[in-house]
Amino acid sequence: MSRIETPRPIRGTQDIFGAEAEAFAFVVETFERVRKLYRFRRVEMPVFEKTEVFSRSLGETTDVVSKEMYSFDDRGGESLTLRPEFTAGIARAYLTDGWQQYAPLKVATHGPLFRYERPQKGRYRQFHQIDAEIIGAGEPQADVELLVMADQLLKELGIADGVTLQLNTLGDADSRDAWRVALVAYFESVRGELSEDSQDRLERNPLRILDSKDPRDKAFVADAPQIDDYLTPHAQDFYGRVTEGLDAAGVAWTRLPALVRGLDYYRHTAFEFVTDRLGAQGTVLGGGRYDGLMESLGGAPTPAVGWAAGIERLAMLVGERGEAVADVIVVVEDDALMDRGIATIAKLRRDGLSADLIASGSPRKRFDKAVKMGAEAIVSLSIRDGETRVSLRAEDQIRARVEGLIS
Ligand code: ATP
Ligand code: MG
Predict the structure, then answer these.
(1) Which pLDDT band, with edges at 50, 70 and 90, does 106 fall under?
(2) Is residue 30 part of a domain?
(3) β-pairing, 283-289 with 304-310?
(4) How far is the C-alpha of 74 from the C-alpha of 201, rounded, in Å?
(5) Residue 251 CB: number of other CB atoms within 10 A?
(6) Best residue among 275, 313, 316, 317 to mutate for probing ligand 1, ranked by most atoms within 8 Å of CB
(7) Which of 71, 93, 284, 334 is the most buried if burial means most Cβ atoms within 10 Å?
């Protein structure tokens, strides 16, 4: 007989189960609650888009576009890409679905994303994000609102300790251009000592050298020209109002002048919430202002700001969460009472009590099994001397309620 091999899961995907799945759900539920407090509207977005949605908005030379996208031609010969991030698709929808009429528009979503990366702890090929965006708002208050929301989320998840908000400004277009010229001049002078990747970035995207994880580059990043010397008065004022807003809201932050972020579309505010509790994958939440993005998709200039956070990384900080025990367990000790058991548990659940039914395996072991599960109440159905017996063993706080439902 030939043995059929079970297909293996795809490298970099995860099957999330049990206490880890509970932590994952806790992150999503907490995010849903917080986004309602901040009045962000929920959106559901397609998992794939035309490839150009990402290549044009993220920038051809970014790591994500140049080496991490899952792109393929569909049966009609069109190049499609599994979304590597949310922002570009949301920006596309803003333009194609007439969402301009709702500006300023606050939206939130969550779901799976796909990047062809080297899988390791905290880094997967299918991962999940929560995401929040404010589109059509050019004022620094929008940046502040998003940052205060992120801060509250981390606190409500109970993981804010040891997580730091690192903040930077990339300035407006003029500041950025002047800084860029200075960076090119500086890195040209040490070109031979940079990593091969960074030598390449020097031509295509010098800012990204600041984001390099290669130790050869890091040595020079420390002494690189800083954005502060190139900020226009407008950019300085904008940044000042963001930090004042954060102080007013009581959100702690630290300045990190070398923080750039890996995508082309950022302007002014850029930020990351980082921790040293996750090893190399320490960035849990990142975002910034992307005033230039809409134009790259053929729209009118539209200011916008947003952030995204990896659910897996947040869930790792949350730690394993126990699966809740049932309020009630219904034990059918005699198979003749199966329908009575089904009716009883349906009634309990319709009243809002969580309940499990134990009605299989050896009848004599069913009650012991229920006791081991540690529910607040056990209802057992048995037949003694030809009579149906319904007995209840319950904690005080739930007894009366269950009694009312089963009598
Ligand atoms: P990193 O520097 O870790 O590669 P990034 O800058 O590429 O992160 P973003 O594109 O800003 O990440 O995505 C926002 C968040 O999504 C990250 O802070 C992280 O929590 C999460 N994230 C990004 N890529 C992955 C991945 N491959 N696996 C798991 N989580 C990820
Ligand atoms: Mg990355």
Answers:
(1) very high
(2) yes
(3) antiparallel
(4) 32
(5) 19
(6) 313
(7) 284
Rounded to an integer, what distance in angstroms lies between the CA atom of residue 403 and that of residue 358?
19
258 and 387 assigned to the same domain: no
CA atoms within 13 A on the CB side of 391: 9
Distance 335 CA to ligand 1 centre (A): 53
Query: Is the Cβ atom of 262 under 6 angstroms away from ligand 1?
Result: yes
| Residue from 240, 239, 295 nearest 264 by CA | 295
332 and 301 together in one domain: no
Does residue 148 lie within any of the structural domains?
yes
Kindly state whether residue 211 falls inside one of the protein's structural domains: no
CATH classification at residue 375: 3.40.50.800
Whether residue 38 is annotated as binding a ligand: the answer is no
Average pLDDT over residues 213-229: 91
Report the amino acid identity of residue 357. L
The answer to whether residues 247 and 358 belong to one domain is no
Ligand 1 atom having least distance to the Cα of 85: 10
Q: Is the CB of 127 under 6 A from ligand 1?
A: yes
Same domain, 246 and 361: no
| Residue 302 sits in the same domain as residue 351 | no
Residue span of the structural domain in which 369 resides: 328-406
Question: Residue 279: which region, alpha, beta or left (left: phi > 0; alpha: psi -120 to 50)?
Answer: left
CA distance 252 to 205: 31
pLDDT, tens digit (0-9, with 9 covering 90-100), for 180-190: 999 999 999 99
Q: Which is more confidently placed, 48 or 202?
A: 48
Domain shared by 147 and 272, yes or no: yes
pLDDT given at position 212: 86
pLDDT in tens, 236-293: 999 999 999 999 999 999 999 989 887 777 899 999 999 999 988 899 999 999 998 9
State if residue 284 touches ligand 1 by the CB under 6 angstroms criterion.
yes
CA–centroid distance, residue 122 to ligand 1 (Å): 9
Angle at which helices 196-204 and 173-188 cross, to 10°: 140
Rounded to the nearest angstrom, the distance between the alpha carbon of 308 and the centre of ligand 1 is 8
Q: Is residue 367 part of a domain?
A: yes
pLDDT the model gives residue 1: 62
| 291 lies in the same domain as 347 | no
pTM above 0.85, yes or no: yes
Look at the chain and report how many structural domains it folds into: 2
Asked if residue 259 and residue 301 are part of one domain, the reply reads: yes
The pLDDT score that the predictor gives to residue 62 is 85
Give me the mean pLDDT over the 344-358 stretch: 98
